[in-house]
Amino acid sequence: MSDFDAAAGRYTTIAGEHRSELEIKRSRFITVLRRTETEQQARELVAQLRREFHDARHHCSAFVLGPDRSVQRSNDDGEPSGTAGIPMLEALTKRETFDGAADLSDITAVTVRYFGGILLGAGGLVRAYSASVSQALATAPLLQRRRMQLYAVSADHANAGRLENELRSAGYSIRGTDYGPGGASITVALPDVPGGADAFLDRLASLTAGGSAAEPLATEWIDL
């Protein structure tokens, strides 16, 4: 698929922070990408880079936030209107990631420009800011997030370790095991899709001869 699909219960984000630099006609374009989950975090990155690159002429930015990408902002920071922030934002929203999906979110891009003395023109600026973000994305470490339904699987102490290993071997995501006085509780994360738990419940019944129950807990977004 090429378009973002919030109903799919997954999206892609950056793993941490990544930097890249591009020189065009003696102007330096330094792009910093960072994982951000709130507008405050995005603005904090802009403020941090204003301090770090305090002698630069422009600190243009764009960010996309939320599993459904409902928050999208851009800022030209003194460049001619529409020549920096919007091209940067489009580079983020149109970037294809895993399986050809354009689903980047929870990401902020800031491009710092040191003017090199040669005017690029409006078209040149659009291409430069877009290329700077695209180049940074090409080498940035990305990861997928998926909406998961957590289940608590009960087990006695004697069988908890074996059951956890068998579930891992079967490809299920184990988020942890808690041991209490009355037994153990294994937290399993399953994709939050219609019928997503059916095969798991059948496997659990087979592994434990019906001796373990699975209780649904919260739904969370989890890094894969």
TrEMBL record:
Query: Which SUPFAM superfamilies does this one have?
Result: Ribosomal protein S5 domain 2-like
A single Pfam family, by name? DUF1949
Pinpoint the UPF0029 domain residues. 154-210
Which ranges carry the Impact N-terminal domain?
25-137
InterPro entries recorded for this chain? Impact, Impact_N, Impact_N_sf, Impact_YigZ-like, Ribosomal_Su5_D2-typ_SF, UPF0029_Impact_C
The text of the family note is: Belongs to the IMPACT family.
Name of this protein:
YigZ family protein
